[in-house]
Design goal:
The chain is of the alpha+beta class and about 170 residues long. Helix content is about 35%, strand content about 30%. The protein is built from 5 helices and 8 strands; from the N terminus they run E-H-H-E-E-E-E-H-E-E-E-H-H. It has an 8-stranded antiparallel β-sheet, sandwiched between helices. The longest helix is centred in the C-terminal third of the chain and has 20 residues. The radius of gyration is 15 Å and the shape is globular.
């Protein structure tokens, strides 16, 4: 697993520019160029993002159908390479399955705006374009939204990434 963050990294690279570049790369990714194709498990969805605003910061989880999993924030915290760990891949596949199952409840996603404070946007990356759903994080978290199960599946991926990061040699 590869991680960047902390004061030394902030001096070398603008954390916001790093975040914006990574996020733009995934939002503009052509799934065919990454060899992501419809499958029996994921006939419509090739990826999903879980984005939450925390004050002036935003955290973005990226999960792709090939197991690629990353987490990055506007403050410069980055975890790339989570897909090399079976427990992360399992959680990613469950997040994508939940997204696939609920896809008909997602609306079109023509914008690339980021969530504001305490807001969450779940983006489904589909073979026919992006779709999204947005609500206050608490509504998802406290089961007050019909797509809370998708939110919790994404949070389970973040939990697996955090557990790996905690045992990583510093």
């Amino acid at each position: 697993m590869f991680r960047r963050g902390g004061r030394d990294q902030a001096k070398k690279e603008d954390p916001r520019a790093l975040y914006d570049g990574l996020r733009k790369q995934i939002l503009e990714l052509d799934p065919a160029s990454a060899e992501l194709r419809p499958s029996a498990e994921h006939p419509r969805v090739w990826g999903a993002l879980l984005e939450t605003g925390y004050g002036r910061d935003v955290a973005t989880l990226v999960s792709l159908s090939d197991g690629t999993t990353s987490l990055y924030t506007t403050s410069g915290f980055v975890i790339i390479g989570g897909g090399a760990h079976p427990q992360v891949v399992t959680a990613t596949q469950q997040f994508l399955a939940a997204t696939e199952a609920a896809l008909d409840d997602f609306g079109p996603d023509p914008e690339t705006d980021q969530p504001t404070d305490a807001q969450t946007i779940i983006r489904a990356l589909t073979f026919n374009g992006r779709r999204s759903v947005r609500a206050p994080e608490e509504d998802f978290g406290y089961e007050r939204h019909p797509l809370s199960a998708v939110f919790h599946a994404g949070e389970a991926v973040i939990t697996e990434l955090r557990l790996l990061d905690e045992v990583r040699p510093k």
